[in-house]
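Forum > Structural Biology > Help requests

Title: Can anyone predict the 3D structure of Glycosyl hydrolase?

Hi all, first post here. I have the sequence for Glycosyl hydrolase but no way to get a structure on my laptop. I'd be grateful if someone could post the C-alpha cells.
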Amino acid sequence: MRFGANYTPTRGWFHHWLDFDLDAVRADLDSIAALGLDHIRVFPLWPLFQPNRTLIRPRAVEQLVRLADAAAERGLDVNVDGLQGHLSSFDFLPAWTRTWHRRNIFTDPEVLAGQEEYLRTLAAALADRPNFLGMTLGNEINQFSDGPHPDPDRITDEQAAAWLTRMLAACERGAPGRMHLHAAYDAAWYRDGHPFTPAQAARLGAVTAVHSWVFNGTAQRHGPTGSATEQHAAYLVELSKAWAEDPHRPVWLQEVGAPAPHIPEEGAARFTEATVAAALDCPDLWGVTWWCSHDVARSLADFPELEYGLGLLRDDRTVKPAGRTIAALVEEYRGRAHRPPVRSTALVVDAGDATAAPRRSVCAPGGPVFEAWAELAAQGARPALVLSELANDTAHLTARGITEVRTPDEVGPARRPSPSVPHRRSTS
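Reply #1:
Sure, ran it for you. C-alpha cells for Glycosyl hydrolase below:
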C-alpha cells in the first residue's frame, strides 16, 4: 500500500514557484516524510511554467526537477500534475487561452499542441528520476468543461475522450512506461450530461483516480459520522470498478480530506481513521493520498473557509490530530500485503448507456444507488457495484468474485433521508 500527501508548500502556497526556496521545500518535505509517507503529488502552476504558448520556462522546469530530487533524498516518490489549472477554488489558466486570446482549451488545435509539448516536456525532464511515478494531466480539469464553472469551455463526451487520449499520449512520449493518468472531480461520476464520464475515468490512463469530498451532499444528508460519510471514499473506489473493463484495475484515492464544518475539527481524526480504513477494505486500491500536507496560511486571502484547515500539518509544520492518525495508520499497514476479501454482493448501477452514462445522477448523494449502497454499508455489509449491462454476465461476475446481485429497490431507503442537496464542485 502507498500512503502520501498532496504537497501544499508552507511558504507562499503554490505561489512558491514565483520565489522558489529549496530550503523551505526541504523543510516541508522533512515534515511529510516524518509521518512515514512515501509519496507526494506536486502542482506546477501552468501560467508560470508556460506563460506563452511557445515558451516553457527552463528555469521553472529545473525547479520542478530540484523539488523531485529533494523528495528522493527523503524517500518520497513524486507524481506531477501538469495543467494547473484549478486549485482550491482558484483558476490558473495562461493568458494565451483567455479574454482577447480566448480559445477552447480542449479543442483548439494551437492550444492542444501547446499543452502536448508542455506535458511532454515536464515528463521528459523527470523521466530518468527513479522516484518519478508519472504525470496526472491536471487537477480536476474537467471542471472547465461544464457548469457550475462560471465560464466553461463546452465540449462533448467524444471531445473529452479525444483530449484525454491525446494528452496521455504526450506524457507517455516524454516518460515511457510511467504511471500516467487523469483525475476528475466527482461530476464525472455524479452529474448527468457532464462530458467527462465514468467510462473515461475507469478506462483511460494507467490507473483510475478518485477524489472524495463529503461536502457534496453526503455529510449534509448523513452527518459527519454517518457510514455513508465515513465510507464515501470507499464508495467512489467501488463505483469506479463498475465501469472498469479490467476487473483488477488499480484505483488511486488521490484526494480525500476532512473539510470543516462538515467534519468538525474535533472529529477530523475519527473521520480520517474511518475513511482510510474503509478505503483499505477495497480490493485493488493502489494507495491513499491525503489532501493536503500543510494548512494554508491565514495570511493568504480569499480562500473558502474550509480550505485553510485541510492539512495533516499546520503551516508551522507541527502535526495535527489527523496527521498523527495517518502516521499511525501508515505504521500499522506499512509492509502488509493489501489483500482484503472480495466484495461478493453487488448493487446494480443503471445509468443508461454505459459509455455516456446519461443518468449517472442515480449514483450521487440522494440518488437510489448511492442511498442503497449507504444502507448496506450501515448494516455492516461490504457492497460492490456492477453496471446493469453486466449484471447477468457470468464471466464478469466470476472475475470479480461477485456471487449475489441486488437492485437498489431491493435494499430500501438509507437511514438518514433528507431533501436532496445540489451538486457542488470539489474543493481542490
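The longest helix spans residues 109-126. The chain has a mean pLDDT of 95.
Shout if anything looks off.
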